[in-house]
Amino acid sequence: MKLEPGPGAAPHSGRGHGPEGAELHALRELLAARDSEVEHLNTELAETNKGVVVLYAELDEKAAQLREASELKSRFLSYMSHEFRTPLGSISSISRILLDELDGPLSDEQRRQVEFIRGSSAELIDMVNDLLDLARVEAGRIIVSPAWFEMLDLFAALRGMFKPIVQNAAVRLLFDEPQDLGTLYTDDKKISQILRNYISNALKFTQRGEVHVQARSIENGFVEFSVSDTGIGIAQEHLSALFKDYVQLDSPVQRKLRGSGLGLALSQRFAEILGGSVSASSVVGVGSTFYLRVPARLPGADPGLDATGAEAHGN
Prior knowledge:
- This protein folds into 2 domains: 117 residues, Signal transduction histidine kinase, dimerisation/phosphotransfer (DHp) domain (Helix Hairpins, Orthogonal Bundle); 149 residues, Histidine kinase-like ATPase, C-terminal domain (Heat Shock Protein 90, 2-Layer Sandwich), CATH 3.30.565.10.
- It is 51% helix and 15% strand.
- A 5-stranded mixed beta sheet has the order 2-4-5-7-6, with helices on one face. Strands 1-3 form a two-stranded antiparallel ribbon.
- A hairpin with a 4-residue loop joins strand 4 and strand 5.
- Helix 1 runs antiparallel to helix 2.
- The radius of gyration is 36 Å and the shape is elongated.
- The chain starts with 17 loop residues before the first helix and ends in a 20-residue tail after the last strand.
């Protein structure tokens, strides 16, 4: 039996009419537009991801090439340094024999020339040692050997080392006796190497006056070493570049006294290895002060017993 719609019933339609049907139609179009936009964004995202993957692959390749280049450079510096040390050592030894007049007396001019040979070979040996240290640092082969030591012993060793080197009577090398520092637990050889570099530079660029070496306790368990001089000074704009590799400042005195430009860079590397830092301050024509700040106890190391055999304690 077929049912007829009753009186007043609206005819059935698949699409709505009136306000509700219009809103439903608009919503469907909006959703369709959003679906199209999402699909477009997904396509762009997929393409971007592909680009990122390619970029990462290129970066990995470049990083591998840089590592290989760095390893080759470090290997070259290491091999070259070892090869240079033997002939330089021979030159230094022979010049020493000549200056000691073991093969007969020298004239004043001959002595002056042999002194020049000895001095030049000593400078080359220092450069070679700097290059070798740089190669070791970059290859991660620097060994830290912490031990207990007294500041008085460190300063005494430095004083004895530089006593025969200070030949300029117009320059005094002064060491202040450390007060209340006690014993330190860190790598004294690396600290000594940094201070030797500071002192050598100070003596090199100081024509008259003094080079002053000090040490004191500062906050947070650190020790601050300083080497001050009354030398030519350094312009403020050059201070930030002092501790970079191969950097040499340009002045009449500095052009005359050339070096490898690695000493201060190595000092910074060694200080960082010991958990510390380096810095400098200077006034042109007045002098410079170079600083080394390191923890009194090497971070991450177990001091165990102090130099006296007692339990280790802070300063």
